[in-house]
Amino acid sequence: MHGQIFNNNLHITLMEKNQNDYHVSFFKPVTNRARKNRSMVLWLIVVWAIAVFGFQILLRVIEKPTPEPAYVTYSEVWESVNTGNASGEELKAFSNSVLTVLGKLYIKPEYKVALTNAFSWSILQVAGDDKERLNELVLNFEKLKEESDNILDPDYINARNLLADNISAILNIKENDPRLTVAPFSVNKELTGDFTEENKVLVAEAMPFYLIHNRSVLTDTVFLGFPFHYFFTAVFLLVLFIGLCLVYCIQTDKIERKEQNLNV
Question: Does the pLDDT value for residue 2 go beyond 50?
Answer without folding.
Answer: no
